[in-house]
C-alpha cells in the first residue's frame, strides 16, 4: 500500500469545527482539502479549497466530493451509509464503512462491545414502545435513555429515575429505537485517542481526563494523571478495539471510571474528539495532524506529552448576555483562544475553546478555568 503524499486532495465529510481543525492541519502538511456540509458557511468553509453543500444523506454530494479526492474521511459519525458507499466508488473511505455502520448505531455499538468482551455497563436495547417499561424495570433506579442514532453533546438523551417525574421516554426521543443504560456512579471520565494506519501502525495518545456538566464536556486535560494501572488498562482496551475493527484513521474511546473502581467503555467516536483538542498544545503531534497522517497512510506522529494542557469549551450561552471579554481571558499566562467562525451563537452550541498549558495537569485546568471566569 502506498502513502497519499502532500499535494493530494483529502475529502472531509462534515465541515464543523472538527473538520475545520483537520483541514488546518492538512493544509500545514501541504494537502488540498474539500469538505461536504449541509451549511455552505460551515466553520471549515474558509480554510478549504472547495465546499460541497449536501445533507448527511445526500449520496450525490458525497460522490461529488469523493470524485475530486484521493482519500475521504469524516468528522461526524452520522453520515449515512449510502453516502459512504457512494464516496467509496471514487476514493478509499477511512475509517471504513463496516466500522461506521456499527458505531453510528448505539445499539449495534453496545452489542458489538459486549460480544467482543469489552467491559461496559448494564444496558437494554429498546426497539419499540412496549419494551420501554420492562427495560427500565430490569435496570432499576436511575437510567440514561439514548436514541440509537443521531445524538451528541447529551442531545437525544433522557434521564429517568432522578426525580419524582416519569418522563415519556419513547415520545421524548421521537418514537425511535433507543438504548437504556443504568446510571453509573462515576468517579472520573477519561478518553483514549487511538490512531491506526492502513499499513497497520497503531499509536494511542496518553489518556485525557474529561469533566462533563449536563452531559456536555466542560473541560478536559492531557494527561489525565490516573494511576498507572488504570492508564495501562485503558490503553489496552482502546488499542484492542482499534485492532478488532482494523481501524484506518482515528478512534476516540470514552471510558467511565466508577466509584467502585471499574473501568467501563462508554462510547466510541471514529474521528477527532473534543477531549483531545488539548493535544494541539500538550502533545508532539496533535489529534488533527494524526488523523491526516493515519488516513493518508503516512508514518504516525509521536504522541508523547510535551507539557500538560487543558481546554474549556466556549458555548453559545456565553454570547447571550454580552460579547465575551476575550481581552480579559487572554491576560492569564499560558492561555490561548480558538474560535470556530460560527456566526450564530446558540445555547449549548460549541463556538470555540480556550486552552492553557501548565506545569501540572491541575495547574493547566486551573488556568483555563480562571480565563473562562474572566469572560
Ligand atoms: P454523547 O454522544 O452526547 O457524548 P454520552 O453517552 O457520551 O453521549 O453521554 C454524555 C455524558 O453523559 C457522559 O460523558 C456522562 O457524563 C453522562 N452519562 C452518559 N451515560 C451515562 C451513564 N450510563 N451513567 C452515568 N453518566 C452517564
Ligand atoms: Mg460522549
Automatic annotation (TrEMBL):
<dbReference type="InterPro" id="IPR011054">
    <property type="entry name" value="Rudment_hybrid_motif"/>
</dbReference>
<dbReference type="InterPro" id="IPR011761">
    <property type="entry name" value="ATP-grasp"/>
</dbReference>
<dbReference type="InterPro" id="IPR016185">
    <property type="entry name" value="PreATP-grasp_dom_sf"/>
</dbReference>
<feature type="binding site">
    <location>
        <begin position="181"/>
        <end position="184"/>
    </location>
    <ligand>
        <name>ATP</name>
    </ligand>
</feature>
<feature type="binding site">
    <location>
        <position position="212"/>
    </location>
    <ligand>
        <name>ATP</name>
    </ligand>
</feature>
<dbReference type="GO" id="GO:0046872">
    <property type="term" value="F:metal ion binding"/>
</dbReference>
<comment type="pathway">
    <text>Purine metabolism; IMP biosynthesis via de novo pathway; 5-amino-1-(5-phospho-D-ribosyl)imidazole-4-carboxylate from 5-amino-1-(5-phospho-D-ribosyl)imidazole (N5-CAIR route): step 1/2.</text>
</comment>
<dbReference type="GO" id="GO:0004638">
    <property type="term" value="F:phosphoribosylaminoimidazole carboxylase activity"/>
</dbReference>
<feature type="binding site">
    <location>
        <begin position="266"/>
        <end position="267"/>
    </location>
    <ligand>
        <name>ATP</name>
    </ligand>
</feature>
<keyword id="KW-0067">ATP-binding</keyword>
<dbReference type="InterPro" id="IPR040686">
    <property type="entry name" value="PurK_C"/>
</dbReference>
<dbReference type="InterPro" id="IPR013815">
    <property type="entry name" value="ATP_grasp_subdomain_1"/>
</dbReference>
<feature type="binding site">
    <location>
        <position position="146"/>
    </location>
    <ligand>
        <name>ATP</name>
    </ligand>
</feature>
<dbReference type="GO" id="GO:0034028">
    <property type="term" value="F:5-(carboxyamino)imidazole ribonucleotide synthase activity"/>
</dbReference>
<dbReference type="GO" id="GO:0005524">
    <property type="term" value="F:ATP binding"/>
</dbReference>
<dbReference type="InterPro" id="IPR005875">
    <property type="entry name" value="PurK"/>
</dbReference>
<dbReference type="InterPro" id="IPR054350">
    <property type="entry name" value="PurT/PurK_preATP-grasp"/>
</dbReference>
<dbReference type="InterPro" id="IPR003135">
    <property type="entry name" value="ATP-grasp_carboxylate-amine"/>
</dbReference>
<keyword id="KW-0547">Nucleotide-binding</keyword>
<dbReference type="Pfam" id="PF17769">
    <property type="entry name" value="PurK_C"/>
</dbReference>
<comment type="function">
    <text>Catalyzes the ATP-dependent conversion of 5-aminoimidazole ribonucleotide (AIR) and HCO(3)- to N5-carboxyaminoimidazole ribonucleotide (N5-CAIR).</text>
</comment>
<keyword id="KW-0436">Ligase</keyword>
<keyword id="KW-0658">Purine biosynthesis</keyword>
<dbReference type="GO" id="GO:0006189">
    <property type="term" value="P:'de novo' IMP biosynthetic process"/>
</dbReference>
<dbReference type="GO" id="GO:0005829">
    <property type="term" value="C:cytosol"/>
</dbReference>
<dbReference type="Pfam" id="PF22660">
    <property type="entry name" value="RS_preATP-grasp-like"/>
</dbReference>
<protein>
    <recommendedName>
        <fullName>N5-carboxyaminoimidazole ribonucleotide synthase</fullName>
        <ecNumber>6.3.4.18</ecNumber>
    </recommendedName>
</protein>
<comment type="function">
    <text>Catalyzes the ATP-dependent conversion of 5-aminoimidazole ribonucleotide (AIR) and HCO(3)(-) to N5-carboxyaminoimidazole ribonucleotide (N5-CAIR).</text>
</comment>
<feature type="binding site">
    <location>
        <position position="106"/>
    </location>
    <ligand>
        <name>ATP</name>
    </ligand>
</feature>
<feature type="domain" description="ATP-grasp">
    <location>
        <begin position="110"/>
        <end position="296"/>
    </location>
</feature>
<feature type="binding site">
    <location>
        <position position="189"/>
    </location>
    <ligand>
        <name>ATP</name>
    </ligand>
</feature>
<dbReference type="Pfam" id="PF02222">
    <property type="entry name" value="ATP-grasp"/>
</dbReference>
<comment type="similarity">
    <text>Belongs to the PurK/PurT family.</text>
</comment>
<comment type="subunit">
    <text>Homodimer.</text>
</comment>
Amino acid at each position: 500500500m502506498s502513502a497519499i503524499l502532500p499535494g493530494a486532495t483529502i475529502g472531509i465529510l462534515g465541515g464543523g469545527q472538527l473538520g475545520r481543525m483537520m483541514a488546518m492541519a492538512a493544509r500545514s502538511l501541504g494537502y488540498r482539502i474539500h469538505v461536504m456540509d449541509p451549511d455552505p458557511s460551515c466553520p471549515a468553509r474558509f480554510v478549504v479549497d472547495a465546499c460541497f453543500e449536501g445533507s448527511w444523506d445526500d449520496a450525490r454530494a458525497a460522490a461529488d466530493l469523493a470524485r475530486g479526492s484521493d482519500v475521504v474521511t469524516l468528522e461526524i459519525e452520522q453520515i449515512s451509509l449510502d453516502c459512504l458507499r457512494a464516496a467509496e466508488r471514487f476514493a478509499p473511505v477511512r475509517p471504513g464503512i463496516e466500522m461506521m455502520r456499527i458505531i453510528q448505531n448505539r445499539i449495534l455499538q453496545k452489542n458489538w462491545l459486549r460480544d467482543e468482551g469489552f467491559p461496559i455497563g448494564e444496558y437494554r436495547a429498546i426497539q419499540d414502545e412496549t419494551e420501554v417499561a420492562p427495560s427500565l424495570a430490569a435496570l432499576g433506579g436511575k437510567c440514561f435513555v439514548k436514541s440509537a442514532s443521531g445524538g451528541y453533546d447529551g442531545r437525544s438523551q433522557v434521564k429517568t429515575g432522578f426525580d419524582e417525574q416519569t418522563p415519556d421516554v419513547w415520545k421524548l426521543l421521537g418514537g425511535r429505537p433507543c438504548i437504556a443504560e443504568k446510571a453509573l456512579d462515576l468517579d472520573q471520565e477519561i478518553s483514549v485517542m487511538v490512531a491506526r494506519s492502513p499499513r497497520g501502525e497503531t499509536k494511542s495518545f496518553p489518556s485525557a481526563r474529561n469533566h462533563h456538566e449536563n452531559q456536555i464536556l466542560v473541560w478536559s486535560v492531557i494527561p489525565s494523571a490516573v494511576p498507572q494501572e488504570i492508564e495501562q488498562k485503558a490503553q489496552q482496551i482502546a488499542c484492542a478495539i482499534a485492532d478488532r475493527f482494523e481501524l484506518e484513521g482515528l478512534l476516540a474511546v470514552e471510558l467511565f471510571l466508577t466509584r467502585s473502581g471499574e473501568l467501563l467503555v462508554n462510547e466510541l467516536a471514529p474521528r477527532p474528539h473534543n477531549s483531545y483538542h488539548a493535544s494541539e498544545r500538550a502533545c508532539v503531534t496533535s489529534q488533527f495532524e494524526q488523523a491526516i497522517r493515519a488516513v493518508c497512510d503516512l508514518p504516525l506522529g509521536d504522541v508523547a506529552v510535551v507539557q500538560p494542557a487543558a481546554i474549556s469549551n466556549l458555548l453559545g450561552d456565553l454570547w447571550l448576555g454580552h460579547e465575551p471579554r476575550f481581552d480579559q481571558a487572554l491576560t492569564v499566562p499560558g492561555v490561548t483562544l480558538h474560535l470556530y467562525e460560527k456566526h450564530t451563537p446558540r445555547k449549548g452550541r460549541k463556538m470555540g475553546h480556550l486552552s492553557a498549558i501548565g506545569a501540572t495537569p491541575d495547574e493547566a485546568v486551573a488556568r483555563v478555568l480562571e480565563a473562562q471566569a474572566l469572560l
